[in-house]
Structure formats: C-alpha cells, structure tokens
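Possible regression after last week's pipeline update?

I re-ran a chain I had predicted before the update to compare outputs. Posting the input and the new output here so someone can diff against the archived version. Not blocking, just want to make sure nothing changed silently.
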Amino acid sequence: MSPTPLSEAPHSASEVVSPDTCTHLTGADHVASLTAALGSLNGQLDALDRWGRLIADVLCGEDRGRLLAAGNGGSAAQAQHLTAELVGRYRADRPPFSAICLTAETSSLTAIANDYPADELFARQVEAHGRAGDMLVLLSTSGRSPNAVAAA
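New output (post-update):
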C-alpha cells in the first residue's frame, strides 16, 4: 500500500480536522478557537506573573536554585522544552540556568520503573536531585497524574 499524495488528500490545506469530532474546521475556525483560548488567559495574568517572578527568584536569586520539570506524554515534551530553553539560550545570550527534565533521563526512568511502582517514577528523582530552594514544575493535562502528584 502506498501513501496518498497530498494532491489527492481528502482535506484541503486550509482545513483542520478536529480529532474530537472528526469534522472539518476552517483555518478561520481554528484561529478563532486559539484567540478565545488566549483571551481566557486575561483572568490569569496575575497568577502567571507571580509564577514567573517566583521562577526568576529561584533561578537568579542569591542561592541560584535549579528547576526540575516532569510530565507525561505531551507534557513530558513540554517539560523537556522548558528545561532546554533555561539551560540554552532563549532570546538573548545569558548565563545558563540550572534545569533538569526528569522525563528525559531515560536510563533512570527505565531503571526506576523496573524496580518501583510507576507512581514513584518522578518522586524518586525529586528525592535524588531536589534541594531546598529548588523549584519543581509538574505539567499535567488532567492535574491528577499519580506520578506527578507523588512527586509533589
């Protein structure tokens, strides 16, 4: 079986298929949904600002703490992206910040999962790497991931 050429694909380039309903959304529909999502952040700006200042205080403060990050699935990728930006360069050249993505340590993940329950996957790493004054960022779509809750 060979793949369908893009010229024969059932959807036009301007359409987005919603995985929830399998209906076609236009580009305008997609932009409208993104605009609504961004607009809903207006009510959270104070909290987001506090979080940003807290992270800056940990990373840039006198004790120069570190940030540990973890998540499952897509949240694991976001945790890895976050720590990469902190260690690397985000917008301008600056000294690196100490940040560890717990989900990127594949040898640790598989060793821990082999010897301990899955709920302890991140908690064990936090116990090993976390120090007073560090910050733990746990990303979860549901907010109820047992291994993230245990790490907290």
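Follow-up from reviewer: compared with the archived run. The first helix runs from residue 27 to 40. Marking as no regression found.
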